[in-house]
Every structure is written in structure tokens, then in C-alpha cells.
Amino acid sequence: MKMRVLCVGKPRERGMVGLHDEYAGRIRRLGVEYDTSFVAEVRADGRYSDDHVRERESRALLEALDGKGALIALDRGGRSLSSEELAGRLERWAMPRAQFLVGGPLGHHSSLLREAGDVWSLSSLTFPHELVRVILAEQLYRALTILRGLPYHK
Q: For 2, 8, 42, 125, which has the most beta carbons within 10 A of its beta carbon?
């Protein structure tokens, strides 16, 4: 099983990095190949429209993809999943590889959402993308423990 998280913008909050890395380590200890990568955040500074920023960041995410595998965009307009539903989908997504795309502060461009095989919503709330990485890693770990019959989920 292989998973990759590709995000717009490198996290700046050390606490968020530490939390993400804790769950990433747990995922790896279960024998799952897990890595994260980043593309540059586009600073609008009043020069670009929100849609233009989303388009440029989404294009960068798509260009940074490597290899084949399921493409899952995280977006508040996507489908909500229970932990058990996620576990079931994760088995399908991560064979051979699941690639999770986390947008920048303005979210994904519609072109990326059309390209994705699935669009998953962690919540209808808006979260900082640094926090999304933490929630995503924890939920992936939780799904893996469900699949393996480990007691974490209970």
C-alpha cells in the first residue's frame, strides 16, 4: 500500500508539522509507504484573481504528480465519508498508490476537481491547509487500523 500527500505551500507552524509527522510515522510503522510533497503557494498580492490563483496552484499540483494511482482531491464540496467508509475506499485507492491533493487557502480550481478520481470532504468547514495535513494523516492512520483490526478506532 502506498500513499502520497501533495500540498500547496509548505507548513510554517512547527506544532502542525510535529502532529502530522507523528501520524506519518504511525502509518509507516504499519508497513505503508507514505510521503508528502509540496508545491509553491501563489501569492496573489492583489495582482491575480482568486480563480487565477486556484488555477495556477492546481496546475502545479497536477504537474507534480508522479506515476499512476488514484487521485483524490480534498475539498469541502466533496463527499463526506465515515471512518469505516474511508477504510473501504482506502484499500481500493492505495493499490497501487493513492495521491491526496490538498489545495491552498483558496482551494482547488474546477479543472483539478474534474481531473480527480474522487473528491473527499473532511468537513464542510474551512481549515488551514496545515491543519488539513494533520487531520488527513490521522484519518488515514485510523482507516488503516480499522483495516488491520487494531484497537485505535474504538
A: 8
